[in-house]
Amino acid sequence: MKLTVAGEVKEVQDGITIAELIVQEKVETPEYVTVSVNDEFAKSENFQTQVLQDGDTVEFLYFMGGGQ
Amino acid sequence: MIKMAKRDYEKILEHARAVLPEEACGLIAGETAGEDKIIHKVYCLTNIDHSNEHFTLDPREQLAAVKDMRANGWRPLGNWHSHPESPSRPSEEDKRLAYDSSASYMILSLMDPERPVLNSFHVQGEEVEKEELALEP
Predict the structure, then answer these.
(1) Which of A13, A51, B43, B57 could form a disulfide with B65 if both were Cys (CB 3.0 to 4.6 A apart)?
(2) What's this model's pTM, rounded to 2 decimal places?
(3) Chain B residue with minimal CA distance to A40?
């Protein structure tokens, strides 16, 4: 099936989960990553179980924060 | 060196002053040319912590900014935030949360309201290196 990942169309195996895609895409510092699927933010506790569907659009966003 | 248009500096300054006493924050995007980074756009985002001591970028606005960068052919260069009451240098929390050693972390100090100070840094673990910043007309 095909996903659009960070703006690029990619062929991935059927039934891939968000957690598997994070590994496959070699996402750095995954503990700081927020994932959106079709502009909806996925809960991190669901990364292992949320299965992506053909045609989904996935974005990886890195947490950015700090303090003085 | 990182190059920023003066109007973008003024945009950051205006936004940071507008949200006082909270910290302001946002993203910077543009291109790289050799060793230099050239900022083409600064994004002023909402600090969802609404705090004068911490900031977290609004993820929805961050997502919109990332899409805008991609649509314009720019790459993310780093982020910026303000220190309303402290100097323009990374705090311990800033260093702890700076996970990308290639990013530019810009900090605008408003500690002296009449003399704002903007600096840009590279952060790798505990090591902080000030990056030359050029404001261009």
Answers:
(1) B43
(2) 0.92
(3) B60
